[in-house]
Amino acid sequence: MADKKADSAVDHEHLTVTGAHKSIPAPHFDVEEDDSGVVIVVTKAFGPAGDNLVGLSGVEYDGHPAITLGVRGAGKEGQVHLSPIHGDPRKKGVQGIPFGTKCEIFCPVTGKELTKVGEIEDDLGTEYYAVYLTEERSESAIMMISNVWGHYHSRLIDDMELISYWATTQDKLE
After folding, report:
1. What secondary structure letter does DSSP report for 77?
2. Are 85 and 29 in contact, with CB atoms under 8 Å apart?
3. pLDDT score of 25
């Protein structure tokens, strides 16, 4: 009965299916399984102008090339090479930024700041910024990363659905 009720809300007389919609390619991440469970690895990531951010540095984590971003904070500026394994807090690169520092995050290729996509309700004033998972830079396929140094909250969004959410209360890991 519920199906008929939902179907009756569709105005079939004025519904047209054209097939002329923009196709959004699948994002670039792999879902792997190991002894500890499911592992999500970002294999391609793009900055605000479409530059590939994976494999720029030669840094790898467990055989997977790092995601490289530019970071400015506490009078420091440089590149940070993040693990592409979702939920893995390992990073290399710029040093000396104190835990809890609000940072500017930018594309290391163009220098363009990453796109702000939302705020986190916390005492730090933390905001999420987008690393796109497709070259088309669709907001429906992004990795949302925090702009606060040592605040390891992130989310993966695919086709506007939350694929993965990771947060920890860990202290600074460098």
Report:
1. E
2. no
3. 43
Q: Taking residues 142-149, what's their average pLDDT?
A: 88
Q: What Cα–Cα distance (Å) separates residue 25 from each residue in 22, 80, 166?
A: 10, 28, 24
Query: Please, are residues 142 and 130 in contact by the beta-carbon 8 Å criterion?
Result: yes
Q: What is the pLDDT of residues 53-109, one digit of tens each?
A: 999 999 999 999 999 999 999 999 999 999 888 778 889 999 999 999 999 999 999
Tokens representing 135? 């070259």
Burial class (CB in 10 A: 0-12, 13-18, 19+), 118: exposed
Look over the chain and give the mean of its residue pLDDT values, rounded to a whole number: 76
What does the pLDDT read at residue 138?
A: 81
What's the DSSP call for residue 12? G
- In angstroms, the Cα distances linking 117 to 58, 126, 147, 174 are 29, 11, 11, 26
Q: Look up tokens 């970071």; give the residue.
A: 71
The reported pLDDT for the residue numbered 13 is 61
CA distance 135 to 36: 31
pLDDT of residue 45: 92
3-state DSSP of 109-134: CCCCECEEEEECCCCCCCEEEEEECC
